[in-house]
């Protein structure tokens, strides 16, 4: 290779080093801090670039021990005047074991001599977060492990510093498996995203105060599973909130008493509720444009009245107003009534059992504004599909997922009336579960194609491609069955991963 060619190659290889520091820092801000540090060995030009990155993103398992972790963080913060993001993920390696050993030493130090407080993990964590707050941090993400008893004990010992509740620059706060101490002062004027997962809360009022201190909050996730520290009352009142996830799913019988979740957020666009325990929901001012995803089991095995006696006044007030007969039906009816104005809904098979239970009683729940419905059905509930659709007179889009379908069982009686939506509004039907052409599946397809007068598109997934004889029968049924002359049938072949469109 000529000398000129060699020179060009060298220039190309090192071209990135000629970029300005600001641009290099921006590039490195998209990778973990560990990766950024590794660039320091490239050349003298790169030796200190990583120290100028306004992001500290670390995993404790990347360090040989807690001392090395603490030294690194201290060095980084000492050389940084501005910090945009602090992310610390505590794994199960040597550093977290060092922390537990230090706490054990302090716990069993009967001499009363604590020693150098600067080596105390709880003290250092408080200092790190306080330093981040003074450096106008915008994003804080702290994750602790909870896979063993010692780790859970550490969570209880290492509480978040109070300064985190009054950080004026904070935009995003994500806390997982941490312990949150109560405070008299809460003010997060710029916080837009808050995710609270598996945390330990001092009391029910804490969460209410924390949420209400965020005037521009747009996204909130509250997820607590399988923990004795779960709250009994959760109140979410926010005019700015656009997305809310409440996930209280966990082992049955973890909670001795029922819970109450109060939601008042008129600006919600997305609401997801997941809960297999006994929870009473009070939802008000839910706009029709909200998209809801419901997976609630209404586990009411415990005695409501007996539990209410032990609860504080809010519990008692809500239970008296909503569940005077302590019945599943009254609680579920109130719940579905609160959702009656939504236009887009996803319902799990567990929640649908509650809908089917209410279908036996008058008046039936009505979803007059519902346009899009995504539902997961057990085989035992599929025969009630016409009744469910009758509750949605203006439905335009239906997506079905089938669970435990008995292939040879007839689903509908010949006397079943055709729901209003099939005759006037339903334009799109999709069956996501792969079908093979069994009797029950053919009947389901036939039901929609022969009764939907304004259907524009019917989509399904066919198992085993065209080689299966039952699949061929189903394909022939698709050609013969029709009610809407303009309906397009889209068949996705599962094995071939291709689609075939049939114009009926």
TrEMBL record:
Q: Which InterPro entries match?
A: F-box-like_dom_sf, F-box_AtFBL13-like, F-box_dom, FBD, FBL13/AtMIF1-like, LRR_dom_sf, LRR_FXL15/At3g58940/PEG3-like
Pfam families reported for this sequence: F-box (PF00646), FBD (PF08387), LRR_At5g56370 (PF24758)
Output the superkingdom of the source species.
Eukaryota
The F-box domain, residue ranges? 19-59
* Residue span, FBD domain: 420-492
Instruction: Report the PANTHER family cross-referenced here.
Output: F-BOX/RNI SUPERFAMILY PROTEIN-RELATED (PTHR31900), PROTEIN WITH RNI-LIKE_FBD-LIKE DOMAIN (PTHR31900:SF33)
Q: What is the protein's given name?
A: F-box/FBD/LRR-repeat protein At5g22670
